[in-house]
Design brief:
Elements lengths: L1 E7 L6 E7 L9 E4 L3 E7 L4 H11 L4 H10 L7 E7 L4 E5 L8 E5 L2 E5 L6 H12 L4 H14 L9 E7 L10 E6 L5 H17 L3
Antiparallel strand pairs: 1-2, 1-8, 2-9, 3-4, 4-5, 5-6, 7-8, 9-10
Helix pairs in contact: 1-2, 3-4, 4-5
Amino acid sequence: MTFSIVARDSKTNALGVCVATAVPAVGSVVPHVEAGVGVIATQAHTNVFYGINGLKLLKMGFSAQTALEAMLREDKDREKRQVIIIDTEGRKTAFTGKETDQWKGHYIGRDFAVAGNMLVSGQVLKAMSERFEFAKGNLAERLLEALEAGQEAGGDKRGQLSAALLVAGEQWETETRPRLDLRVDAYPEPIRELWRVYRVLRDYFQSPK
């Protein structure tokens, strides 16, 4: 009941995920990332262990596809899941279970994958893909652009309530801040608010001290 994008910046090796939904606190369950390892979004009937265990498998050297297949084999409710993964080498995979809610689907592009369920239509993922491919800026900004495009195309057919952005590998203040973790947990226009919070953070670190 969510739409999301996972992506990799092939120039910087940054990894990130952006997600929105009509339920609260999506950032606490759907997005998972680890610098130099991979990025995962686990949604629909969300099972957070696809994120937790998926990163462990990637860290052990499994490819995105092999890691996903291993987790699906162990899950009797796999047809209720939706998962997208990119590993640090840029290998991508996606799964949309047969029992997830319409409209549902996923798309894999160059250095990104998008997925959604309970959407107004497939146009949501098409809009996200096109915006990400042509967006300028760093990975965080391109992810936010894609999420905004998905909402403009209709997004979650139940409405909107929470959104999150999680990026690893892009430095913010110093090399000791390699991770960006922003969440809007209950707000009428969560993607717009997520953009606002991001810009406040960006401007703070870019301004002279």
